[in-house]
Amino acid sequence: MTKLDVNGRVHQVDADPATPLLYVLRENLGLNAAKFGCGLGQCGACVVMADGEAVFSCLTPISVLEKRKIRTLEGLGSADKPGPLQRAFIEEQAAQCGYCIPGIMMRAQALLERNPGASETEIRAALQPHLCRCGTHMRILRAVARAGQLMRSKP
Amino acid sequence: MNRRDFLKSSGALIVSFSLPAFAQKLPGALERSPQLDAWIRIAADGRITVFTGKAELGQGIKTAILQIASEQLDVDMKAIELITADTALTPNEGYTAGSNSMKDSGTAILHATAQAREILLAEASKRLGVGAEQLTVQQGEVRAGDGRRIGYGALVEGKVLSVRAAPESKLSRSRNVMGKSVPRVDIPGKVTGGVAYVHDLRLPEMVHARVVRPPSYGAQLKSVDTESAAKLPGVIKIIRDGSFLAVVAAREWIAVQAMRALKARAVWDEPRKLPQDVYATLAKLPAQDTVIAGADAPPVSGAKVLEAAYTRPYQLHGAIGPSCAVARYENGALTIWSHGQGMYPLRGAVAELLAMPVERVRCIHMEGAGCYGHNGADDVAGDAALIARAVPGKPVRVQWMREDEHAWEPYGPAMITKVRAALDASGKVSGWQYDVWSNTHSTRPGKAGDLAAGGHVAKPFPPSPPRPLPLPDGGGDRNAIPLYRFPARVTHHFIPEMPLRVSALRGLGAYMNVFSIESFMDELAAAAKVDPVEFRLRHIDDPRSRDVIRLAAERFGWAGYQKKNGHGRGFAFARYKNHAGYAAIAMEVQVERETAEVRVLRVVAAVDSGEAVNPDGIKNQVEGGILQSISWTSFEAATFNDTRITSRDWSSYPILRFSHAPQSLEVHVIDRPGEPFLGTGEASQGPTAGALANALAHATGVRVRELPFNRARLKRAFAA
Questions:
Q1: Percentage above 70 pLDDT, chain B
Q2: ipTM exceeds 0.95
Q3: Is A58 at the interface with chain B, CB within 8 A?
Q4: Hey, are the CB atoms on B650 and A38 less than 8 Å from each other?
Q5: Helix (H) and strand (E) counts for chain B?
């Protein structure tokens, strides 16, 4: 059994400790947001946060995550009560197929928690590990900047 | 539940009728599925269900269709349930492809819902004893001037409305919902972790499978030691059928590990037959030549004659999510949840693969990662079907690995074009000869042999014979006929033999043909010493074409452009398929010669897709098309040795990242209310490639005619 703190809830997970976090999130915990994209850390579709940092969940075994707080897109809000980053992506209509978006959003969340005033250059640099095949880049950049404003305007 | 049960269970009704042979053509896809109740159903309690045979691919079609139905029926979008491609419930609309969803399904639903409204009005008029012209519809009710009102549900209750689609409809002219940038209905779920994709489908007792794909095309599995994989805890079954090898496990990660264990112990016979010089190989293969325009055009001659040749490599769809399907085989019936583009054609292929009657197979569309054409979606559905039959009663989820998708998806075909044209003394094009060489642009199933697994099983199925796609849409020759006003002779050299697996990639031949034509138009403009935008306008009369060209140029500030060192601007235009959406693109790039680094600074696009149902949806599609085309044009070419595909991940097949997204991108939509829907998704890729080539030439003085413009190629070109 591996103890995992995901979105503020502690789960006892019955899985091989070498299992990448992604499979545990999707299968054991029934969370949809983190996606399998490449299994190689090249596309970012699987990115979640661990202790405030963006990590590739497809590469990170659960054994190294026991003492860390994991956050996924589900932890940022819901369709009924979207968090600031989710609101910003809806307001900017920043998705086409949307498959890459959860990973991008978690990377953006990690950036904005560190630096809510991130400039466009900083946002681009932060999102460099992520691929979007639909070409939604311009909207994603706007949505992240807008989320930064929403976060700054809220104490 | 089949369609009939579904209709019965909800006490519905607008109805069926037998189909008489009418001469007049029905609008959009009504022609193929003429019953109104194939498209719209109103239940006794007033619930409205709209059916489309098209699928949401991330292009926003659900939202646009709901807008249309909402406007015509005057009910809130939220009050309408929309059911997309499902062989048990929806009309057969073939494939969701070719930017045809609005033209086919959008048009059908526009007319079906308008006609349903008129039927409801007529029915209310009878019941209320008031002329229909004195009645209005509002929020799902018919209202009379004296305050009496009847809900839509009550109007259909207990009655059989025998309705056949008419060729003409009284369309509602109100524009409360259509024409508005309504937020997409699927985005909230996608940004909050809802069940958004077939990848997220979890059925009770579901198991996971992985396929050990052959290492190369035509590889035969000689032997495999299954012992170590079989020993992994949770492995349920190993399936081998000829060279089709798969493993089923209780857990997904176990399935992945078992697949790797099998892969390590599989011995294959691999043919060494991939071409080393693609273009030389293609040029030598037998071709079927068809003159598609200007058979009697005079030979090219004039004051100045120019010629050029262009090449395009094999390019990937490159979905970010590898293909996935869920299948369940139970009591001789098979259900598949798939993100393929054609549920009915897939059903036929899978039924053949499993030797099942087609009626026993149901295919239900669920979204996947964006596909941009025929990728691994159908193949993985075939895999899931074969595997599900081996574990009856258990739903099986199969997802491809990254290397499966990269190596096995059918690519956009490599192509060659050659053009020769003459300018007369006044600087106008006086003759044009254009040749395009290409494989087919569709190997979609179809047939079992069109599925990857169909070629791997012990008794393999033959693939469908490759065929050129007919004009006016065309395949390799899509957009090969220039839109400009000059005599042009155009020949399509269709090459049946396919050295690599190929099929439909967004835009088909239009990407390469528009890139070639628009590059060459700039070469001609330069030779004529005329501004490229002015040169195009001198050769085109069509007012809507001129409108997008002028608008893009004006918003870009073309006339007042001041060239800076290392910077350049480029322009290009096309009307997709020569009869669909219009797009003109102006672009500015900055080029660093030493590093061969190209940055796209600014892109301005003008598009006309007919009536704009959702202007922001159109912008989103066009922005995406531009970014994707910048990626194709700048970076993308599949690589391979004589045996294997070597583009197996994102490092061996790089695509655009955030660093290469433009600094600014504007899309201007020209709305044409009342005009037919023309479609949008594939209008911008060709013009983007042309504009980029022209901007690069303007910045550096070097004309590059081989795609992609990667650094290695540009360094060689700059050094030459």
A1: 96
A2: yes
A3: no
A4: yes
A5: 18, 24
pLDDT in tens, B300-323: 998 899 999 999 999 999 999 999
Distance of CA B429 to the CA centre of its chain: 34
**Among the residues of B539-614, which ranges form H helices?**
543-556
The CA distance from A79 to B519, in Å, is 46
Quick one: which of A139, A31, A96, A83 has its CA closest to B58? A96
Residues in chain B with CB shorter than 8 Å from the CB of A27 are 251-253
pTM of the model: 0.96
Sign of CA dihedral B549, B554, B559, B563: negative
Q: What is the 3-state secondary structure (H, E, C) of B251-263?
A: CHHHHHHHHHHHH
Q: Where are the beta strands (DSSP E) in B378-506?
A: 396-399, 415-423, 429-438, 488-494
**Residue of B399, B437, B401 whose CA lies nearest to B416:** B437
Q: What's the pLDDT at B159? A: 53
Under the banding of pLDDT at 50, 70 and 90, the label for residue B156 is: confident
Whether B631 sits inside 8 A of A135 (CB atoms) is yes
Is the CB of residue B337 less than 8 Å from the CB of residue B198?
Answer: yes
Contact B212, A40 (CB under 8 A): no
- The whole-angstrom distance between A147's CA and the closest CA on chain B is 13
pLDDT digits (tens, 9 = 90+) for B15-49: 333 344 445 899 999 999 999 989 999 988 889 99
Angle at A93 between CA A89 and CA A96, to 5 degrees: 105
User: Most B CBs within 10 Å: which of A100, A109, A134, as the mutation test of the B interface?
Assistant: A134
Q: What is the CA radius of gyration of chain B?
A: 27
CB contact under 8 A, A97 and B370: yes
pLDDT at residue B417 tops 70: yes
Question: How far is it, in rounded angstroms, from Cα B615 to Cα B618?
Answer: 5
Chain A residue nearest residue B648, CA to CA: A38
